[in-house]
């Protein structure tokens, strides 16, 4: 037996689950239902699933903002046709999250919209341009819409802890417009602030109609799906009711479904066996499913494995990220690795992705059971995330491990589209 063969056999035994996927699906289902009842971090109902489209004035404009990391995206979106009229993006160089942070963002957005004719100066027009603003905010929020935690290098300041993201952004718009009223002759109402998984779900349902599950497998791992309102424990029902308009008929909730932002990265503490090379600080223990499936953590596990078997030097210069793993699983030409070990490194990368696909397939099927999907031999999953999008091998393995047919459909611009759709569906008759 060669050394390479010995390494592959050892890692295969460590990584590939020995339990049938049906057993893991059952365990995941139990954990999801338990978290739905008890967790204050995951499985939070975010908004009602609309069953009809509200009236919409075609002259109203939706400005969608996607705050997902160090690159901020925004767009002007027309509905109901779902047309992106204009979109742009810029890098965020200021990482301290305070009022100045949001003021700078809003000023840049207004400046770019003005440069492209979407905001007029007071000298150009006597009619105020009106915008309804909807935001996808890809960091954990509590039921009140306040930030729970920040990551990706951002530092939250105590001064904003008492305010909701919606309030902060509305205040920033008011300040920037009032300070530049001659330049930015417009009025803004911030309508919705939603999580990225909710945005994916709304985009999926609005575009594809029959999708039952929305999935994120990129830097992180998350999912969103519908459950009957009656599944919620009393505390979550109360929190959800507090977010509804005062004229909403509370009794109708009993006949509704709700969208659940599941934060599935937290799933698997008693199911997934982490190896020493999977340990990346507290996150590995707190979020085992995300740790072994996401484009942030899986590549670091690969690096640790290669270091463990001395297949790369300690000072290896190439960053391990999702793009590199995708290249290795497809056995693409690569100049970073020793030719002697390259086939073995590709095999190891594929083993890690196979393990990830097994658990993603299991969580998809567990969610499908909870939602009570009627298509028992078929699951349509709308997804986002560059890691899964660019890894054909990952997609193929998810389908391979699934006991039923899984169709994966990538949803481009879903964070922007989902935010706009939320405002389009939920907007009341009140005017700016």
Key terms:
Hexokinase_C; 19% strand; 14 helices; 6-stranded mixed β-sheet; single chain; alpha/beta; 5-stranded mixed β-sheet; 432 residues
pLDDT average, as an integer? Answer: 84
Strand order of the largest sheet: 1-11-10-9-12-13
**Span of the ends, CA to CA:** 74 Å
Number of helices, where a helix is a run of at least 4 consecutive DSSP H or I residues = 14
User: How many strands appear in the DSSP assignment?
Assistant: 13
Largest sheet: 6 strands, mixed
Helix content: 25-40%
Structural class: alpha/beta
N to C succession of SSEs: HHEEEEEHEEHEHEEHEHHHHHEHHEH
Report low-confidence residues grouped into runs of 5 or more.
none
Rg, Å, rounded: 23 Å
How much of the sequence is in beta strands? Answer: 15-25%
What's the shape? globular
């Amino acid at each position: 037996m060669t050394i390479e063969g010995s390494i592959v056999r050892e890692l295969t035994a460590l990584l590939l689950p020995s339990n049938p996927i049906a057993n893991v699906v059952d365990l995941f289902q139990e954990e999801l239902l338990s978290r739905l009842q008890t967790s204050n971090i995951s499985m939070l109902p975010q908004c009602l699933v609309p069953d009809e489209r509200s009236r919409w004035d075609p002259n109203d404009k939706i400005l969608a903002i996607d705050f997902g990391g160090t690159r901020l995206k925004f767009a002007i979106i027309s509905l109901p046709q779902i047309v992106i009229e204009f979109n742009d993006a810029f890098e965020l160089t200021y990482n301290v999250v305070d009022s100045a942070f949001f003021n700078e963002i809003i000023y840049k957005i207004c400046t770019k919209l003005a440069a492209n004719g979407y905001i007029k100066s007071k000298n150009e027009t006597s009619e105020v341009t009106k915008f309804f603003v909807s935001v996808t905010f890809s960091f954990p929020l509590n039921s009140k819409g306040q930030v729970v935690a920040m990551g990706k290098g951002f530092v939250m300041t105590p001064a904003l802890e008492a305010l909701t993201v919606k309030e902060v952004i509305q205040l920033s718009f008011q300040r920037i417009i009032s300070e530049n009223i001659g330049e930015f002759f417009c009025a803004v109402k911030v309508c919705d602030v939603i999580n990225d998984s909710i945005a994916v779900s709304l985009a999926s349902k609005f575009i594809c109609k029959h999708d039952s599950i929305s999935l994120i497998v990129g830097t992180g791992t998350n999912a969103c799906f519908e459950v009957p309102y009656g599944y919620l424990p009393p505390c979550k029902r109360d929190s959800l009711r507090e977010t509804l308009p005062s004229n909403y008929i509370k009794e109708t909730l009993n006949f509704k479904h709700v969208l659940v932002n599941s934060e599935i990265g937290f799933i698997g503490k008693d199911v997934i066996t982490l190896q020493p090379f999977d340990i990346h600080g507290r996150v590995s223990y707190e979020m085992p499913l995300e740790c072994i499936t996401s484009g942030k953590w899986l590549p670091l596990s690969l690096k640790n494995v290669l270091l463990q078997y001395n297949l790369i030097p300690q000072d290896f210069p190439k960053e391990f990220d999702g793009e590199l793993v995708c290249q290795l699983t497809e056995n693409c030409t690569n100049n970073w690795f020793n030719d002697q070990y390259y086939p073995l490194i590709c095999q190891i990368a594929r083993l890690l992705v196979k393990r990830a696909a097994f658990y993603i397939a299991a969580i998809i099927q567990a969610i499908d059971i909870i939602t009570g999907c009627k298509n028992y031999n078929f699951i349509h999953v709308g997804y986002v995330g560059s890691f899964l999008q660019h890894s054909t091998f990952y997609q193929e393995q998810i389908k391979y491990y699934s006991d039923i047919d899984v169709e994966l459909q990538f949803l481009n611009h879903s964070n922007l589209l989902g935010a706009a759709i939320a405002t389009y569906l939920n907007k009341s008759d009140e005017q700016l």
